[in-house]
Amino acid sequence: MSTIAKPRPTVHTNGATIPEVGATLVPPRTLYRLTLEQYHKIVEAGVFVSGGRVELLDGLLIKKMSRNPPHNESITRLARRLARLLPDEWILRVQSAVSFQGNEPEPDFAIARGPEGRYSRRHPTPRDVALIVEVADSSYLPDKVDKGARYARVRIPIYWIVNVAQRRVEVYAEPRGGRSPAYQKRQDYGTDGAVPLVLETKQIAELLVRELLPD
């Protein structure tokens, strides 16, 4: 009587998880990690378009998730409201890059220190940024766990997740770096609430949560 071999556990190599096929171990594969300089050269060569469907996370090119109509509706609503509330010394960057430590994510929104021409030859770095906003539906877990840890590691002061599915805005503050980066404070705002817009510890305005979400 023949027996069926059970699959062995997955193998981790260079930060990647390599699954097995049946009982045969897939040989470990080394992932090539790009530097920011190498990534910029690839973009300049036209292989990938900055603002396109990939972003650099921990040196790896990661395909972005597709955006559905409710996601895009929230982006439109946020863009209109944030743009008219910002003081002159701040600028709103929409789906544009932020550079740090082998990463160049393109968050849905980043509020960065102005003036407008400040980033004509470079992307903002964490010291330029007061707030990052990601609109999340199917991307909620990567935005909360993966990107949240990255933003906390480089001390982005405040991070919002506009949670379309759960109809709330999650505000993360007090970033902690080190080996286990995380935000130490979280405050959720439901559709009956207003989320404060805070830049460098100063509250600028409040945004009604129900106006940021699709009907």
Characterise this structure:
With 215 residues, the protein is α+β, with helices and mostly antiparallel strands. Helices cover 19% and strands 32% of the residues. The protein is built from 3 helices and 12 strands; from the N terminus they run ββαββαβββαβββββ. A 6-stranded mixed β-sheet has the order 5-6-7-8-9-10. It has a two-stranded antiparallel sheet with strand order 1-2. A two-stranded antiparallel sheet has the order 3-4. Strand 8 and strand 9 form a beta hairpin. The N and C termini lie far apart (61 Å).
List the helices and strands and how they pair.
Elements: E1 11-13, E2 16-18, H1 36-44, E3 54-57, E4 60-63, H2 69-85, E5 90-94, E6 109-113, E7 129-136, H3 140-153, E8 158-163, E9 168-176, E10 182-189, E11 194-199, E12 202-208
Parallel strand pairs: 7-8
Antiparallel strand pairs: 1-2, 3-4, 5-6, 6-7, 8-9, 9-10, 11-12
Structural class: alpha+beta
Instruction: Give the rounded overall mean pLDDT.
Output: 85
Helical residues, percent: 10-25%
Please give the largest β-sheet: 6 strands, mixed
Distance between the termini: 61 Å
What percentage of the residues does DSSP assign to strands (E)? 25-35%
Extract low-pLDDT stretches.
1-23
